[in-house]
Design goal:
heterodimer, A: alpha/beta, Urease, subunit C, domain 1, TIM Barrel, 13 helices, 30% helix, B: alpha/beta, 4-stranded parallel β-sheet, 11 helices, dihydroorotase activity (chain A)
Chain lengths: 428, 313
């Protein structure tokens, strides 16, 4: 293993909240030292990386990535997702269990772990389903799955409707210290919806869901956490109405965190325009007021985590009338450039962004990554925050090309990605 | 007379001048249609395909007649019965038809936006004959022509649209058209049948029909679409009729010369009193059907002119 010395870097340290020139020393795949003064001379055998003033930040920990193995490998495989992640500065992928079949047994979990180890150049940590087949009826073997390496438990966008089943799963998970990830949504209100209710949905004639459905789903989950003491993370909080409930739950000392995907932070319902199905997401894109509110919540730290909610869909499932089209967007490669829109607009600083994209998800999952402190794994991303480019979806490394940013003007590009001190991506 | 549109997908993209252009041309077809020789061969040699993915008798017949009177070769395809049952996607169906070189494609589809999607994939002119809960532009145009002929103008009128606004593409297209022509629009119906965000539409909303009908010039009733109801929007048909059904007593609150419209097919005794619907002094429902053919002839002619101006591959 080669040791590395990064000099002349702009260090983005989310833990310290600093964005300053400096150097970083990697020994045996871990960060050995950092500094802002003059860099030490490289020792013999060490590789010197002159960053040329570019940003060096902890690699992104992307919580909630769908890789379509098993079941739909034509949409995304561990190899393609791993390469997309590396190209996007994502050094740890936390995979979702909403595959076909669902990852709900230790055997399936072992299969995907093996596939990940064989094919993906970045760290891959799997989540497992909370209930068998994500059916919301019986809890999975949470203990065995944890032993097999599951880092969290979630039924993804299948909301467990039966509160008795959910409360038992929460209670059982708590006894093992397992993290449960919920999708706050009232299923009665959201059934059949393709857009957020409001003027836009009405004009387009699309079935809408009130933003209140998210708040109701969150309120219910919060009550169950209070009852059971479970460790809980809400996958996506995308509406202003849900924020006070989240704030109260945190103030009451519940073990709760919340996330949001990058699309809801950078796009709003009007982007759907003339029924563009690449903008069909779950939950649907929200109003601009909601978008502003959730940006503020990320800034204040109320919303802890930004993720890509990477959801590959093939062309066939998107080339349909809007209501029939599949939901979701790929995001591993576009997460950082899209997040930099928030930096360039002055909404969030780089340390704030990396707090949400690297430090907080790592902390929530008990990982040592996501920081630049001594002893942390040298999972790093080197990027130029200013490079302008127009995104061409066919250049993406993901097998599926369903990104709403196709043809979008982006600013900021990954130059190199390192996992445990090893380069896994380098832009020529 | 210019009409710079390749398709007629909705009222939203049209300017007030576009609307007037269509209506003026339609007037000439109203006259033609009343003669014994009803042919004008402006579409001679062109092929018109009517693709209806949703049941329709009236609209399909109207489009068919409009095409035939203009001399087009008209083909009807009942899409419910055919390829979609075999799993073909909308786009594949469109591509297949496109290969047959139609010039005009008239499409109705149960999903909002489906006609827009189809229009992106074909080389011919597409007319939206109703897509989901989105738009039904020729219905709004025929309503506009009916109003203009009955009232002598299409602006500064008080127009009430009553009933199931939320599920109605007719209401959406009318709302947009009548708004563009600077009328005052009132929406009347139970709040469960009002679309969300209605407060931002620049219309007045009433849940009391008696209040809403005060001094209006036009009363536009909508069909209570039972087939669209997932259930539970209204307590019962009879309570709906009591509160929102149009009868002589409620109509008395409107202006004495107010006209009554309905896009059909009517549910007599659910949203409108049968006697009132047949009252030739108030009801213009039959005129609407007549205007429908004329407006569709005009719209197809305008689109065909643009096609003729295009270089052929």
């Amino acid at each position: 293993m080669t040791d590395l010395l990064f000099t002349n870097a702009r260090l983005i340290d989310p833990e310290a909240g600093t964005d300053a020139p400096g150097w970083l020393h990697v020994v045996d795949g871990r960060i050995a030292a950092t500094g802002t003064a003059e860099a030490p001379a490289p020792e013999a055998g060490e590789t010197l990386v002159d960053c040329g003033g570019m940003c060096l930040a902890p690699g992104i920990v992307d919580l909630g990535v769908k890789i379509c193995e098993p079941g739909e490998r034509h949409k995304e495989s561990y190899r393609s997702a791993g390469q997309a992640a590396a190209a996007g500065g994502v050094t740890t992928i936390i995979t979702r269990p909403d595959t076909a079949p669902a990852i709900d047994s230790p055997e399936t979990l072992e299969f995907v772990t093996r596939r990940a180890q064989a094919d993906a150049p970045v760290n891959v940590l799997p989540m497992a389903a909370l209930t068998k087949g994500r059916q919301g009826r019986e809890m999975t073997e949470i203990g065995f799955l944890m032993d097999a390496g599951a880092v969290a438990f979630t039924d993804c966008d299948h909301v467990v409707e039966d509160t008795k089943v959910l409360s038992r799963a929460f209670t059982y998970a708590r006894s093992l210290g397992a993290l449960v990830i919920g999708h706050p949504q009232d299923t009665g209100l959201s059934k059949g919806a393709a857009a957020t209710s409001g003027k836009f949905a009405s004009l387009r004639g699309l079935p809408g869901v009130s933003p209140m459905a998210e708040r109701m789903g969150l309120d219910r989950d919060i009550a169950l956490i209070e009852m059971t003491g479970a460790r809980y993370h809400a996958d996506q909080i995308t509406t202003a109405r849900a924020l006070p409930a989240l704030e109260r739950a945190k103030a009451n000392g519940l073990d709760i965190t919340a996330g949001i995907d990058i699309h809801h932070l950078t796009l709003n319902e009007f982007d759907v325009a003339d029924y563009r199905t690449f903008f069909k997401l779950k939950p649907p894109l929200r109003s601009e007021d909601d978008r502003q509110a959730v940006i503020e919540a990320v800034r204040s730290g109320l919303i802890d985590i930004i993720c890509s909610m990477h959801t590959p869909q093939d062309e066939e499932s998107k080339r349909l009338p809007f209501e029939e089209a599949a939901s979701g967007a790929v995001g591993l490669e576009t997460l950082l450039p899209a997040a930099l829109r928030l930096y360039h607009s002055g909404d969030l600083s780089l340390p704030q962004l990396f707090r949400a994209m690297a430090l907080n998800p790592a902390k929530r999952l008990g990982l040592g990554a996501g920081r630049l402190s001594t002893g942390a794994p040298a999972d790093l991303v080197l990027f130029n925050p200013d490079t302008p480019f127009v995104l061409d979806r066919f250049q993406l490394k993901s097998k599926s090309k369903n990104t709403p940013f196709d043809g979008g003007r982006m600013q900021g590009r990954v130059l190199a990605t390192y996992v445990a001190g090893e380069p896994v991506y380098r832009r020529d | 007379m210019s009409f710079a549109h390749r398709h007629l997908l909705g009222i939203e993209p049209l300017s007030p001048q576009d609307i007037v252009t269509i209506l003026d041309l339609a007037e000439t077809y109203v006259d033609l249609n009343r003669q014994s020789a009803k042919h004008a061969d402006v579409l001679a040699g062109l092929t018109q395909i009517n693709m209806f993915f949703e049941n329709s008798t009236r609209t399909q017949a109207s489009f068919e007649l409009a095409g035939k009177r203009l001399g087009a070769d008209v083909m009807n395809m009942a899409m419910q019965a055919s390829s979609i049952k075999k799993g073909e996607t909308l786009i594949d169906t469109a591509m297949t038809l496109n290969a047959m070189h139609p010039d005009l494609l008239v499409v109705r589809h149960p999903h909002s936006g489906a006609v827009d999607l189809l229009a992106q994939k074909v080389n011919c002119a597409v007319l939206n004959a109703g897509d989901g809960k989105h738009e039904h532009p020729t219905q709004a145009l025929l309503d506009a022509l009916t109003i203009r002929r009955a009232k002598g103008r299409l602006h500064r009128l008080n127009i009430a649209i009553c009933g199931d606004i939320s599920h109605s593409r007719v209401a959406r297209s009318n709302l947009i058209l009548l708004g563009k022509m600077e009328n005052r629009i009132r929406l009347i119906g139970p709040p469960t049948l009002m679309p969300s965000g209605i407060g931002e539409f620049g219309v007045e909303v009433y849940d009391d029909m008696r209040e809403g009908l005060q001094d209006v010039d036009v009363v536009m009733m909508l069909r209570l679409q039972k087939e669209r109801m997932d259930g539970g929007f209204i307590p019962s048909e009879r309570e709906y009729y009591h509160r929102y059904g149009l009868d002589a007593e409620k109509l008395a609150l409107a202006k004495p010369d107010a006209i009554v419209m309905h896009p059909g097919p009517m549910n007599r005794g659910v949203e409108i009193d049968g006697t009132l619907a047949d009252d030739i002094n108030r009801s213009v429902i039959q005129d609407q059907v007549e205007m429908g053919v004329a407006v569709r002839m005009a719209a197809m002619e305008l689109l065909a002119r643009n096609l003729a101006a295009e270089p052929r591959e």
